[in-house]
Write a structure and sequence with these properties.
Order of helices and strands: HHEEHHH
Structural class: mainly alpha
Low-confidence stretches: none
Number of helices: 5
Mean pLDDT: 84
Number of domains: 2
Largest sheet: 2 strands, antiparallel
Strand content: under 5%
Strand order of the largest sheet: 1-2
Radius of gyration: 40 Å
Distance between the termini: 85 Å
Length: 158
């Protein structure tokens, strides 16, 4: 968690009068994300860096307020683009990961289907063998199921 600064600390760090700080806060509120807790300003390191940048652009580079806002807007725009690119990379990585997982599931599904086919074919072969070994159904008896015939055959009732 980054350090938080009070107004008095910021005034010392930036070396500007209190009135100038409050002017900056009003004029550049769209570019500063300062918290207010119990009616006091709480600044982050990012806020202090932005305030230093504003001071530098106004005092050292002698830009107008409107031009400083344009510079800050470009910086925000570039930050948003960079963040968007990072998010896109994360999304692409997630999609690749999901694609690999789907491919693995598909391969597993194919193996399961192959095993099911093998099992079915084996069952069919077993039934053919059993039907060859079973005695023919007695025509006087009611039609019995194959399983009833298997039970009788197993018990030796041929």
């Amino acid at each position: 968690m980054s350090k938080k600064y009070r107004t008095s600390e910021v005034l010392e760090l930036i070396d500007i009068p209190k009135t100038t700080l409050y002017y900056y806060l009003r004029e550049f509120e769209d570019y500063l994300h300062i918290e207010r807790v119990n009616n006091r300003y709480i600044f982050t390191e990012d806020d202090i860096n932005t305030l230093l940048r504003i001071k530098s652009l106004l005092k050292e580079e002698d830009l107008s307020i409107d031009n400083v806002k344009k510079v800050l807007e470009r910086a925000v725009s570039l930050d948003i683009r960079a963040e968007t690119q990072n998010n896109m990379k994360l999304i692409i990585d997630k999609i690749d990961s999901l694609a690999n997982a789907i491919k693995e599931l598909s391969q597993t599904q194919k193996k399961i289907l192959d095993n099911m086919n093998t099992t079915y074919n084996t069952q069919q072969k077993i039934l053919e063998i059993i039907q060859k070994e079973l005695p023919p159904a007695n025509r006087r008896e009611p039609k019995s199921s194959i399983w009833d015939r298997i039970k009788r055959w197993w018990r030796g009732e041929r």
